[in-house]
Amino acid sequence: MDRIRSLFKKREDEQEYAPLTEETDFLGESRHEDEHAVPFSWIEYGIFVWLGIAMLWAWNMFLAAAPYFQTRFQESDWILQNFQSAVISVSTIMNLLAMIILTNIQYTASYPFRINIALYINVGVFSLLTISTRLFLDTPPTHYLWFLLSMVALTSYGAGLMQNGAFAFAASFGRPEYMQAIMAGQGVAGVLPPVTQIISVLVAPPSESVSAAPGEVDDGTGKAAFIYFLTAVAISVIAALAFIPLVRRHNHIVEARMMEEMASSFNSVEEAERAARKVVSMVTLFKKLHWFASAVFVCFAVTMFFPVFTPKILSATPPAEADALLKPAAFIPLAFFCWNLGDLGGRAGALVLPYRERPFVLFVISIARVLFIPLYALCNLHGNGGVINSDVFYLLLVQFPFGLTNGWLASNCMMASSEWVEEGEREAAGGFMGLCLVAGLTFGSLLSFTASGV
């Protein structure tokens, strides 16, 4: 028993894998700081939250828009069955490739530039998707699938730029709270798209009196998708505008630090940043952050099964008795909402209930989350009836806690990345943890094909 307990205690002899110095954060919790600590600002925190929203809005939009895509693919049974896994795989593979390349470009990296380019890509892609809901509606399913996957690939490349840039940029401030702000924003990005979809469907419900001809989308579904994609354009534009004062604030911080040390030797903020920045190999970062990195990888690999099952599970209420919220067009986004609400709660809870001193425990929890996957088989898959035929069980006892554990676990791991490395390694550590996150998503998306035929 003592041997088991010892696994959950931090080893004092692990000098290369330990936090540096310890102070108190704005919530009174123990945190790790250095002499160049930046004062906490709720305004800056809010901007990082919004960047987190923009970062994952595209990802969650493609998941929650499953009912609309189903109407576009209704003529092809194979595409209808596999498009969700295809979207997930293209998204995560492209994202991973971008992250691998960007993580290895450290010294000359301009993280604000990467963030801005990502936002511009999102504005362009979402504009095209918005237009596609009103034009070219007779496009064959195969052609529309290629168009959709192309849009997914572009947004995934943008997401790679955004994740690498935002995590590294936040880490450079030396405030773990800002890293948590991005994670919280990602949680909000998970909650808002399904809410938007639900409202859109309720405001403009799919037509039930006249069935759409094969290959056509009824007017209600088209209007709902139009509103949905247009909202995504607005999110990215607002993020780009909000990012401007944050970059100015960051430049002032760098200038102040250089004034204290050797500012006269540099001609620009970028040059000063590069001088203070350490180029750190991924091997070195993994040695320092191996449990956190492994926990994030496993956490998101397991998580990637939920978007495959969610569009296939319908309300346990018989269709004849179901109201508008329990019909598939609204119930599927409602299920995504419950998962993402739990995810958001977990990400916010990482501030109130931090747990970053025993990384091995976080790794064990990430593995234990695999127990959620069999629970989906107990629900109402394809409307054929479930072993436990209850919407409450599905939404509140499967989806919500699965999301809650994801958000809490991932946020604690990401927040720890800037605390367990030296100051000059923070940007590299932030990018490295983002890479581990995306690698987990990619691995999980490929595994999800094993469940696509369920």
From TrEMBL:
Annotated Pfam families: Nucleoside_tran (PF01733)
Membrane topology of the entry: Multi-pass membrane protein
List where the protein spans the membrane. Answer: 45-66, 86-105, 117-137, 143-169, 181-205, 225-247, 291-310, 330-353, 360-377, 392-411, 432-451
Primary localization class, coarse: membrane
Entry keywords, A to Z: Membrane, Transmembrane, Transmembrane helix, Transport
Keyword Transmembrane helix included in the entry's annotation: yes
What domain of life does the UniProt record list for this protein's source?
Answer: Eukaryota
Localization annotation? Membrane
- SUPFAM superfamilies from the entry? MFS general substrate transporter (SSF103473)
- Protein family (similarity comment): Belongs to the SLC29A/ENT transporter (TC 2.A.57) family.
Its recorded name reads: Nucleoside transporter-domain-containing protein
Species whose genome carries this gene: Apiospora arundinis
Lineage of the species this protein comes from: Eukaryota, Fungi, Dikarya, Ascomycota, Pezizomycotina
